[in-house]
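Record C-type lectin domain-containing protein, 156 aa.
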Amino acid sequence: MAARRGAARGAVSGHGLAPPQRPGQDIKQVPGLGYYKFHANAQTWLAARHTCTKERAHLLIVNSDDEFATVKSIWDNYPNLFQDWRNDYVHIGITDLAEEGNFTTMFGEPMNMTGYARWGNGEPSHGKAANCGRLSRTGQLFDSYCTNVLAFFCEQ
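=>
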């Protein structure tokens, strides 16, 4: 976890770490946790990942109950994004694209090392076709089709 967060938060410059850039607006800083930006403009998982990368961030990876509570408080400001099941989910930075059935963070970190692996009942459940992760408003993780168009969080 420390390596992922360190890599996401700063880049080596000279002899030390350069402070991370905070591009754009609507970024919420939460001391001790990080920086979060909610994107209501729904995209596929890969497009969302690309958007976060352009912002020098990454798709949200939940590491604790406190972090879930933080993103939930931001998400609660958007109660009616969609009029269907998509209203209750966001893309997150977990996938089994590298090895079918073995969900890891997009940095290759095993789920049991993230500090938060609260899968929904029977999840992951969609077999070979569902290779990306989503988070529910209730805090559960689900496998998801990468082509689903959902809102998402970028995290630094």
